[in-house]
Amino acid sequence: MSDSTARGPRARDSRDSGDAEYAIEVDDVSMIFNIASEQLNNLKEYFIKIMRHELFFKEFRALNHVSFKVRRGEVVGLVGTNGSGKSTMLKCIAGVLEPSEGSIVVRGNIAPLIELGAGFDPELTARENIYLNGALLGYSRDFIDEHLQDIIDFAELEDFMDMPLKNYSSGMVARIAFAIATVTEPDVLIVDETLSVGDVFFQQKCEARIRSFIESGDVTVLFVSHSMAQVARICDRAIWIEKGEERMDGPAKEVVAAYAAQFDPAPSAAAGEKVVIDRLVASTPYTLLPAGADGLIPERGADGRENRFYVAYTGGPVTVPGARYQVRSGSAVFYAPLDPSAYSVVYLKDEDGRVVREAVDEGTYTIEVDLTEEARQRYRLVDTSYSFTVKRCGHYDDVESAAWYSVPVERAYNLYYLADNEENLSRPHAPLLRGEAVGLLHSMCGGFLEGDGGAEDVAPAGFEDVTGEEGFAPALAWAQRHGIVGAGGPGTRFRPEDPTTREEFAVMLSRVARARGTYAPPALDALSKITDVGTISEFALTDVAWAVANKVMGNGGTVNAAAPLTRAEAAAMAVNYQPEAPDGCDRVTNPRA
Amino acid sequence: MTHDSETHGLRAHAGGKKNKDRFILQQLVTKDFKLRYRRSVLGVIWSVLNPLLMMIIMSFVFSYFLRGSNVENYPLYLIVGNITFSLMTEATTGGLNSIISAAPLLKKVKVDRWVFPVQKVFSAMMNFGFSLIAVVVVMLFFRVMPTWHLVWMIPALLLLMVFCIGISLLIGAAAVFFRDMIHLWSVAITAWNYLTPVFWDLSLLTNAGAPQIVIWVVKANPMYNYIDMMRCAIVYQASPGLTVILLAVFWAVLAFVVGVWVFRRTEHKFILFI
């Protein structure tokens, strides 16, 4: 850190003042990388660039004025998305990188379980490698002599000690590396979650050893994980680093909650269908197993298709560990590619367990995550499944997915109750005009009812204010023919530009049911739970009772009968009435009525 | 960065940085040595055979057209020059690539960076030790009896080692930033080999009436001085001249100081370039 000697004395002061309760002190650390605009690998290029004054560097701050202190014996989690600066921080603490600014004091020996097996030479035997790696970790020769047997015993590789390491499987190498790194209780232990060693049994052994360090209370632990559940469980405290900045430092549970909140919905408002994942269940903590006999996960599935890394979503947080979601516009859905540096293969399976490429159709899907280590070894995450339900809904830009009416409005669109418009707006809060109301009912029935016999709907008759040229005219004629709207007569007006009241719409729906022959008279006490029965007009009473009995309206205890019907409410009532509503599309309760 | 393991002093860990570095150096040298001849039938014997075979071929060829020179015991003259020069070649070429090839290690663990170039020099020295057996064989063959002047070998080798460490630090650091160094150095070594009286003799130059400046250049050449010291100890069995000793010291100190200075100035940036 000679470049920052100005800060050196401060670090030394704090140490001399007996401030030894802290095992790690990170003081205002910044790490700056100069990214050359292009790679210059030889002198010629370098000189040419200098001559032309073209040698520009872009500064990249991997860490920006990060400060924290860790007490002796404390267990601290470090969280952040990939590329947030976590690894840089760890490498600085482990002493591999030197911070560009600021200082780091680490008291005691570090066991960095970040990159195991540094300095292993494949040509040397396991025994020789133990000494070499031990030397690099700072052990003395006497110490290794003394503990050689412990290391061999822990790694369970007694019979292979004099075999060159190149003949070892990657799991065996990892075993030895872990055994060497943890042969003694360190002062500071840095554990990376992606540290996955060997088979399940050996992993449990490793975890037990790490846990014994944690429980001893003497060991300061820095724990890096993408699994928020793990951090919340193991750590007392957590530090969240994002884009090189320290975002939060506090009790683990609070930090984890805040970290998880950042994945809250921020779907793109671009046109196209949305796939709403409305439920996401994170299952049990995972365990790791090699994927196949060769340790590789096949790039293509059994059906010959490429295994893809896509998960579709727009809605709520998808808490697959290590995944960062960037929504990009596909042909029909939005995809969120998982960061391939940490997790390479994600299987998306449908209800029948088939691997599918995208979660387009409605149904429950399961994401299975496979972990790739940076090197050639790959592991499969077993029991790591995350299921979510996809409902296909509509496409309106002014419908917030969180709004109560989003499902019925989008569904009404998908079922063609609501017409397309150029702006992709459903104007959910605007009143539904009477002309539009008949149009909606007409669309809802597909312009067809039993007994139509393919009759052409011609001009409606009997209303002074309807010329027959209007867009809703065929629907009105259809409605009249089926008795949904009165026949009219001299002097009667349809008032197509007036808002529809809620009870009027209930009457129309009820008449649709009659025309369909599905109408059943409501029970006498159908309105008993409705608190605002008094607002219902005399003519609509039976029909509103029918609507309430069939849960078309009044699900919240009121019917608000005389109020104008908004478009959102109309969609909700239509969807609620819709006799063949599929499962999973629950009847909607309008908060207003 | 301050890592004060002294305050805690766990017995597991080598007491202090010096011991740790020494152990790492020792392990790395052992590793290099083990890997060098692993799975070759003759193994370490090659370290002896190699200079011997080289000497036989070269003395066969050159003793004919170097007749004008007055070198006595040309094979011994040749083998001493050859192994000394290859010591430098091996040490510096190793040092040249040492940082780059230690990249996976430097990216993962905290370890003092200077150990890698220095270790390469030590490995070369060790190999040189075996080459000396070849010299003994030649001396026995030609019935050359060593005298007390043989002890001049020790300062000669020590100075050469310091010189090589300095060069290795310098070019090892330079190669990190400019990979061209790797190619440049092999050319430089070849040129240097011809400039140094390894298989020829300085008297050839003076007898042929070469300009004084050329003779100065050859004599100032660091490798000339180290090889001359070695030959004084083994071949001529006389004490080296004062100029030779002073120049040998001068070059060793200069190379070391420059090497250490450059290395320390640049080592913090290695990690960003490897």
Tags for this model:
heterodimer, A: 593 residues, alpha+beta, six-stranded mixed β-sheet, six-stranded antiparallel β-sheet, 15 helices, 18 strands, disordered N terminus, B: 274 residues, mainly alpha, 12 helices, globular
What does this entry look like structurally?
- The complex is a heterodimer of chains A (593) and B (274).
- Chain A is an alpha+beta fold and 593 residues long.
- Chain A has helices spanning 8-16, 43-51, 86-94, 126-136, 141-155, 170-181, 200-216, 228-234, 252-261, 406-414, 434-444, 473-481, 502-516, 541-549, 567-577, and strands at residues 22-36, 57-71, 75-79, 101-106, 110-113, 188-192, 220-224, 237-242, 245-251, 275-282, 287-290, 310-312, 328-329, 334-337, 343-349, 355-356, 363-372, 378-392.
- Among the domains of chain A are: 275-392, no CATH class; 407-577, no CATH class.
- Chain A has a 6-stranded mixed sheet with strand order 5-6-7-3-8-9, with helices on both faces. In chain A, strands 10, 11, 15, 16, 17 and 18 form a 6-stranded antiparallel sheet that branches. Chain A has a 3-stranded antiparallel sheet with strand order 2-1-4.
- In chain A, 43% of the residues are buried.
- Chain B is an all-alpha fold and 274 residues long.
- Chain B has one domain.
- Chain B has helices at 16-37, 45-65, 74-101, 103-106, 115-141, 153-177, 180-195, 202-207, 212-220, 222-236, 242-266, 270-273, and one strand spanning 2-3.
- In chain B, helix 2 (45-65) packs across helix 3.
- Chain B starts with a strand and ends with a helix.
- Chains A and B meet through helix 1, helix 2, strand 4 and helix 4 of A and strand 1, helix 1 and helix 4 of B.
